[in-house]
Amino acid sequence: MPIDTHSGSQSRRDFLHHSVAVMAAAFGLSAVSQPRAQTMIETLHILSASAAGSAPDSVARRIAEQLTGRYARSAFVDNRPGAAGRVAVNALKLAPADGSTLLLAGVGATALNPSLYATLGYDPVADLQPVSMAAEMPLALAVGAAVPDSVGNLREFIEWMRRNPKLANVGSPGVGSLPHLLEAMLFRQADLPWQHVGYPSGPPAAVGLLGGQIAAVILPEAILNPHRQVGKLRVLATSGAQRSRFMPDVPNFAELGFRELVATEWFALFMSGRVSKAIIEPASQTIRQAIARPELAGAFAALGMVAVSSTPTELVARITADKRIWEAVIRVNGIRAE
Questions:
Q1: Do residue 298 and residue 192 come from a single domain?
Q2: What is the value of pTM for the model shown?
């Protein structure tokens, strides 16, 4: 429809800095390239890998609003959900290579899917050209009705799970999702067996938690916070490198001794691998300027997200670092997606 917007984290930062120079060449980008002036295009299509009404869809629509009149005369969001982002990526591959089509996709389509699927159907390096980061969404671990009120922190929850193995079930938005991988990383480090319960998306997992069908979930903070504010669940830890701006009273995993558990869901903009760098670079500059606008930051904060932009090269480094981390988690835990 038309729119008329410590150790683990230190090693990650070191790897990111190194990757900017090394990986830029793999994506055909220049770390010091000078963008050329962008010609206004007539109609911009933003493909969203998520359903209408979802948080990523809202990100795409807010960005479309900001790019109307700056990058394009009009902008449309085209929702292509399904197959863990593969439907939207394949639509991008067929789009004109003239800068008129962007894809908003998350960490899964670029850094997770290559390790999760035996047959992916696209090449993240050849078919997706990074343009800019768009938003980050912190994750959190919460417990609900199935866990006694006496369990008030992460260590106590882990010990409760150890004493109650039949109740040690934790939900996420599906096998191979970033919350599932964070869950696997946490409980492997805690040396604790658990049962993963996959849901089709985040909201149904939250319903399962509130109803006592599962003991805990790892989900985006934006889904959990409204229930937390009325006392229906307890958030025990968040996943950012620092405390969350949305839950500043809750410690992060690193504070609690799990220093490598630093992860956020993120969403970024891509163009087809057939688009020339002469189009990519000025488009990235225009998009970064739009994301920096205060009204966009406010709109994202209302969704429980943080507005974040990047150069194409910085986005390459982020993808590369995340892929390196999560492919090891996927391999060690034997996680496969269908």
A1: no
A2: 0.85
